[in-house]
Amino acid sequence: MELLEGITTRRSFRGFKSTPIPEETVKKIFQAVSNSPSYTNTQPWEVAVVSGRKKDELSKILYDLAAQNAVTNPDIPMPQAWPPKMEKRTGEHGARRLAALGVVRDDAEGREKLRLMNFEFYDAPCALFLFTDGALTTWSIFDMGLFAQNVILAAHAFGLGSCLQASLSNYPDAVREFLGMPKAKKLIIGISLGYPDIAAKLNTYRSVKLNPDDFVREYA
Ligand SMILES: Cc1cc2nc3c(=O)[nH]c(=O)nc-3n(C[C@H](O)[C@H](O)[C@H](O)COP(=O)(O)O)c2cc1C
After folding, report:
1. Regarding the domain delimited by 19-27+51-128+159-205, which CATH topology (the fold level of the hierarchy) does it fall under?
2. Which of 114, 169, 187, 207 is the most buried (most CB within 10 A)?
3. pLDDT over 90 for what percent of the chain?
4. Which residue, judged by its Cα, is nearest atom 18 of ligand 1?
5. Residues 6 or more apart from 126 whose CB is under 8 A from it?
6. 59 lines ligand 1 (CB under 6 A)
7. Ligand 1 in reach of 164 Cβ (< 6 A)
């Protein structure tokens, strides 16, 4: 896949086929992603690739915590408020995702179902958990963002769909304990990964993007 085509056609998927991802494909993705840039080449990333029975077990742990509304304790604090323009976008995003599922806004049960689908990894056969060293600063989180983008673009090049999920970082202690990851590793984000199920209702939802004129200022 040509680079620009990959960037412009990438999207989040929230419904996957159960088809496993070949081991060789996972290897090739991370071989490519190992070329990611980072502050002074520190390469502060570590990735847990979770599939099969392990994925089901971890999904159940996270699903149960979320279903019980257990107190969340993400390593990176969740945003509590947005500036007005972004608040509008996040509201539209939420409403349109619900509409794709046929859920109306005051349907609390439907909203809860959508929230919990996060913890089923949207049925993906594989979940990635991206960690960095807890002693690092915001710059390393920036590096992790670049790394994550490369992961999802490389996956896209292999016909895989993905969904970055901050929600998968809500219970980092449970994830670390399950994976045997030391407390010193900070959980940045989870990514559901698999071959997209185009027929899945949630995949009919497409996010609306700004026009470059709305965010590019040219000076000459
Ligand atoms: C940092 C970050 C956190 C996200 N967390 C979630 C999440 O918890 N659940 C989810 O379904 N999507 C999540 N997303 C996906 C965004 O909703 C999605 O990228 C956005 O709506 C734009 O759509 P697109 O990826 O299809 O272009 C997240 C994306 C990012 C970058």
Report:
1. NADH Oxidase (3.40.109)
2. 187
3. 94
4. 12
5. 20, 21, 26, 49, 50, 51, 55, 192, 193, 194
6. no
7. yes
Where do we find the tokens 């088809």? 19
Choose one of 153, 156, 163 to mutate for the ligand 1 pocket test, by most ligand atoms within 8 angstroms of C-beta.
163
Going by alpha carbons, the residue nearest to atom 1 of ligand 1 is: 166
Confidence of residue 106 (pLDDT cuts 50, 70, 90): confident
Whole-number Å distance, alpha carbon 219 to ligand 1 midpoint, is 31
Which residue shows structure tokens 């989870």?
190
Work out the pLDDT band at 103, boundaries 50, 70, 90. confident
CA 170 to ligand 1 centroid distance, Å: 15
Judge whether 199 and 123 are in contact, CB under 8 Å: no
pLDDT over 80 (residue 211): yes
Q: What separation in angstroms does the CA of 90 have from each of 48, 84, 105, 130, 142?
A: 29, 10, 14, 24, 22
Element (H, E) at 144: helix 138-157
Report d(CA 176, CA 185) in Å as an integer.
8
Question: Across the chain, what does the average pLDDT equal?
Answer: 96
Mean pLDDT of 98-108: 88
Chain segment 124-162, per-residue pLDDT in tens = 999 999 999 989 889 999 999 999 999 999 999 999 999
Strand partners, 186: 132
Domain ranges of the chain: 19-27+51-128+159-205
